[in-house]
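Lab meeting, action items carried over

1. Structure of the two-component assembly. Owner: GW. Status: complete.
Input record:
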Amino acid sequence: MKYVDEFRDRKLIMHLADQIRRSATGDYTFMEVCGGHTAAIHRFGIPSLLPPGIRLISGPGCPVCVTAAAYIDQLISLSFQKGVTVATFGDLMRVPGSAGSLSEARAEGADIRVVLSAYEALGIALSDKNLKVVFPAIGFETTAPGTAVTVLKADGEGADNFFVLNAHKVMPPAMEEIIKGGSKIDGFICPGHVSVITGSSAFEFIPRKYGLASVITGFEPTDILSAILMLIRQVNNHDPGVEIQYNRAVTRTGNTKAQKYMNEVFESCDAAWRGLGIITSGGLKLREKYKSFNAGVSFDIEVAHNEPDTMCICGDILRGISTPSECTLFASVCTPDHPSGACMVSAEGACNTYFKYHLHE
Amino acid sequence: MVVSVSGDMAEVSVGGALFSAGLQMVENVSVGDYVLLHAGFAIEKLKEEDALETLRLLKEIDDTMAE
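Predicted assembly:
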C-alpha cells in the first residue's frame, strides 16, 4: 500500500533500532497520548526493539477510555426515552457506565444503532422525521470538526430531530495536567491525528514551560522509531522542542479549515475525563447559537448515582502511573469479552492492547 | 485513496474497503489523492513530496549505517 509499505521496511526498522541503542545513554520514559500510537507501538512490537532503559507508557489518548462513566449513564437514560434513537460510534457500545453499557441497553430493547460518522447519524434523522436521533459526540480535536460540520449541515437542513450529546475533549490541557500531576516522563510522543488539526504549535508550551521533549509522529514502525530517536536526542542535548516527524500530514499551523468549523460551533469548557477528573478548558461545548442541537438541553436526562468500581485502576493507567498488568482485575475478571474498565474495551485502550500482545510475558 | 468525488462527499478506498468521506475540511481533492480518513471525514491530504522527503531521510540513516 502506498505510504504504508515504505514505512514498514525491515532493514530501516533494524537500523533505526540500532541507532536508538547507540544513542541511549541512560533511562528514558516517553508517554504516547494517542490511542492509535498505543495500538501501533504494541502491534509492531516496538518495545522489544528498544534497550531496557527506554520505557514507553500510555497516556489518556484513547477517546473511549477517557469518557466518563456518568456520560455513558446519560446515554443509556436517553436511549430508553420514547422515540429516541442513539446513533453511536461502535467502540462506545461496550464501554461500562456505572451500571451497564449501551450494548446491554440495546439488548433490553433500546433503539441504539452503530454509525461510522456524525454525518451518518444525521442521515438517519433526515430520513425519518419521527425519530429523535442523538449522536454521542466523543473524541478529541480530530473528531470534533466532523461533529461541527454535521451540526452546521443539520442547521442548514432545518433538522429539528437531530441532537448531539457532546463530550468532545481537547488534548493539550490533559497533557499539562499529567505533567503537573507528577507523572515522571522525559518526553511526549505527541498525538498524530490531533496534530493534523491543531498543528504542532498547540504543543509548544510543553518544551517551553516544562522543558520536556516532544515529537509528533505517524503510525508506522519507522515513524515511531524515528520519533523515539528524536526524543532521545532532544533529551541528551538538553534541547527540547516540538519536532514534526509526521510531516506528510502535520504542519505547524494545522488544518485551519477544520479549526474554523470547530470554532464556529464549539467553545472551550471544563470537562470530566475518566481517571483524570475535571480538567480546566479540557473540553468543548456547543455555542449558544447551536443549543437547539444540544441533547443535554433538549431532553430531561435522569441518571441514578452509582458508585464506580473501585478495583479498576483505569485512572492510574491513563496517567501513566500504573501499567495494565499491575491491576488485580487485568486478564482475570477484566478481559476484552467482559471489560470492567474502559481501557479494556477499545482497541486503542492500554489494557486491551496489553491483553492482546503482552499477556504471556 | 480517493476513488470518486461527488460534491462535498467522496468514496475512499482503505486497503480495498470503500468508505464514504466528507470533504468539507480539505481542498482540491481529486480521484487518486491520498487522504487521512477519520470518523467519516477526510481530515488532510497526504503530501507526497513530504512523504518522499521522510523516506529519503530514513534512507540516509540506512546508508550511513551501511558505511
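2. GW to write a short summary for the group page. Key points so far: The first strand of chain A starts at residue 28 and ends at 32. Chain A touches chain B through 37 residues (CB under 8 Å).
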